[in-house]
Amino acid sequence: MKFLEGNDNYQTVFPSIGKISKNNTHIGQGIWLPTEQFNSLIAAHPSKRYASKFVMSLSSCVYGKEVLKNSSITGRPCNSKQNSLPKDKLDATKLLAIKDFFEWWLKQKCKLNEVQIISYVAKMNSYITNKICELNRNKEPRKSIAKVKEDSEEEKESKLEEESEEENELEEQDSAKEIEDLSDQACESD
Fold it and tell me: Which residue ranges have biased composition labelled Basic and acidic residues (predicted)?
């Protein structure tokens, strides 16, 4: 296994992972992310428990969601869908950059040993495939619990307003009917 940070040949060809230049941070293979995204990825995924989420988020940052949605790792047709057409293959250099950065993150931030890193890196392609599948599902993105609560509060308020409006309309109709009845009585007594 080639640990890119410790490999002297790597550093002569590319800057080291984590090197910052003009508000961009190097993640490997000459691929750069905005430093803000780089730092967010590190902060949002503090341990190996988040390995799959780290790779999924990283792949979205590197490729973009639209490219991921319309691509596959191999470029072959989907096995689960009959008569599916082949998709574009993901850029190999960017895929290697994701692998480099994932190895770096596992070693530097999660403090894993070489055997553990090999185990996690072996799952990397499946993590990316899962992200692609997630993007291609026809479902709307899940709402957060806070958003659902917010929506239900708004719905309650809306229903109360509707009920209040209906009551006002009924009261107006009743008042109009009473006035009409009084008017009719007044006309009859004349």
Answer: 142-161
Sign of CA dihedral 132, 136, 139, 144: positive
Which CATH number covers residue 90?
A: 1.10.10.2590
At 101-157, the pLDDT tens digits run 999 999 999 999 999 999 999 999 999 999 999 998 865 556 656 666 666 777 777
pTM of the predicted structure, to 2 decimals: 0.66
Same domain, 69 and 112: yes
Distance of CA 86 to the CA centre of its chain: 24
Q: Which ranges of the chain does DSSP label H, i.e. alpha helix?
A: 8-13, 35-44, 51-63, 65-69, 92-104, 114-121, 124-136, 145-189
- Residue 147 lies in domain: 143-190
